[in-house]
From TrEMBL:
Listed InterPro entries: Actin_polarity_regulatory, Afi1_N, Tripartite_DENN
GO biological process terms on file: actin cortical patch localization
Coiled-coil regions listed: none
Organism: Rhizodiscina lignyota
Span of domain UDENN: 16-564
PANTHER family (alphabetical): ARF3-INTERACTING PROTEIN 1
Regions of compositional bias (Acidic residues) in chain numbering: 110-131, 639-651
Disordered: region residues: 75-131, 240-265, 639-663
The protein, known as: Spindle pole body interacting protein
Amino acid sequence: QVRSQYPRDSMENHVEYILVASFDIDRGSVMEHQYPGPISGDETMLAELMLPDQAHMRSLDWTIFFLHKDTSAEEEAKELRRERRRRRRRKGGDGEGDEDGNDLGRPSLDDEGDDYADASEDETEEDDDELEGPPLVYVLNLVNTKQDNTVKRGAIVKAMAICTRHSFLHIYKPLLLLALEEYFRNPVPDTLALLYDAVNSMDLSLMPRLSLLERQILQASDAKDMFIEKFDQMIQHRMVEDAQRSSEHSSTSDSPSRKALTRYNLPRDTHEFESRVMYNGIPVPIKIPSAISPETVGDFSLVKLIQTFSAPHSQSPQAFSPSHPHLTTSGPYTHPVIVLINALLTQKRIVFLGHNQPSGSVAEAVLAACALASGGGVLRGFTRHAFPYTDLTKIDDLLKVPGFIAGVTNPAFAHKPEWWDVLCDLPTGRIKISPKIEGAPVTEGLLFFQQSNVPLTLNGAAGTSEKTSDKAALNRAIEDVTGDHAFMESVHHSISSRHGENVIRSKFGAYIQRFTRIAAAFEECVYGASALFIGANETDTDKWNYGVSGHGYVWRSEAERAAVLGGYAWRVEGWRSTRSYYSFVGDLARGWDKANKQASVGLDLRFQCDRLRCLKMGHDQSAAIYLALARSIERAGAESDDASTSAEDDSPASVSGSADPATAARNAAREMARYDIINQLLVVLPESSGGLFHIALGLFHPRQDVRAAVVGLLERIREHPAGRHFWANMGRFAKTGFWRVR
């Protein structure tokens, strides 16, 4: 059953608080109103954040900041609901009671609302910020300045902020514009109550909850009807509910169904869910992203961030001085965007300075940088320690946070290099490395790798480049080793070709994914094993008898492996002690446990597909991969040591309606497992990298059994809700081969 991402009977509000602050010439920043009640924390600090520096110089400005709210009471209530569900699962329907006298076989009235709201809590817990601490409260703030000669300063400055748990807080911008104008006319708490009631009445119950793999597929695809089936199921379920509800109050049974059919429509683009908020008699259309990745907050542009720091570098390259082995991984002329990514990965203190720019610009740059290093949710731990906007009054608290990412507008930060490791100057488009940055320690892993592989001077850490006259030639050689130069060239080509924001985000997602796999290879090379690849023993020993083995990153040669690992060694060692590294290890462990419960493959799908893409193989080697991919789908959900289960469950008796309930349940579980594994396969075969092209090449394999297996694999994909879009984008030549073999 498809579940709603925001159920109608959920107790969680879309917006928790609405704040209003103003600037008083005598008292400074003052908090005027808080609705529906006072928010915990320092009111003066909140008022100062809501009224940024030089706010009176602009008629309009947006700011974003995060609050770490105390949620101990909410956690206790959530744990109580979980305990109630565990008790009912243990007792089942035997009608026994607990110590409070409640019937454990039947949920109480208080539990009925909790069950639906928390039914998928265990499924999505690994995606929540609760793994790192209490969930963040995202604050969207609007500052408005109106000229008024009757007041002392000649202007009235007021700010209104919305506090929400939703990371897509940019959808509230049109509502804030209307509400702040209304507050200027009528500055009373009832104005805030009107906005509070309007935004919390927004109906998002028809927005389906997507799994992590489904969100990745949707974000990487341009198909406007991707997973439209889930939206249709939500509508059909709602229509049935409406018909049942109406039949209880009316004797006519046909009219409610007709009214429901005209009331609900499928979305025009499944990437966005369209809703409407009625505020003060004005219908305000709202578009909510259907797939939100961790570390993606608000509305920002990676293209804008890249262009800001790429244009000055391409016109007049400047060497980074001082250089740093964690940052200048391609020598002193490393691309500034790569330096920024390396600083984020190795947890350096980063400041975005936007002198004489709106505070909204620096906040947008901070949020874009977090998404840049996250790679679309591959890594986490950036936004929790980000400060989209801050000022000099918060510097003491800021310096207590290791590896912060802050946005400021005060130029005093540029003259304090001890406050930051990397300074990103937005007006000039230049990135500076602090002369007081802490040096990179030489770890045991680096020493061991240097003794057994190529020297570490490939990454520009040593001073050899200063003695070389042809710096550009040396820099090109270094960039060829790391691959960063070619990557940035492809990014610039996509931007100049107007491929769009989603393509750029997909490229950086693939870049971060590649980085993690190279880091895993480095750990295995130096330490003998890696926590970044769980299940290596199963894939290397071919536990499930697929006929292929191996895992990790695909190398074309041993020379390439040694050179690339040498270029990545310093930043990998720098990354291994960061928050994002440990969060990634935890995410992998939870994902592995979940896969073992639902759809364990026992095969590194990305590794095998990369072998098809990157290596020149013989017919027998490619045949083994094609047959293994086909077997992984066919055996989904079956026990690895029970090969007969597959044939037994696919027999005519099992498929027919005469199957017993146990067999039907087993078949349903296997179909769900196949669905999940096909999702895993589609994630590693994005359309931007050719989609099903390399799979379809198996249709022309010399061996007949391989061609037949590929046909079966493509038929499974063609029947998949998302796979049918991949099939539609497959070339006509491949489709002709498919029908011929079939």
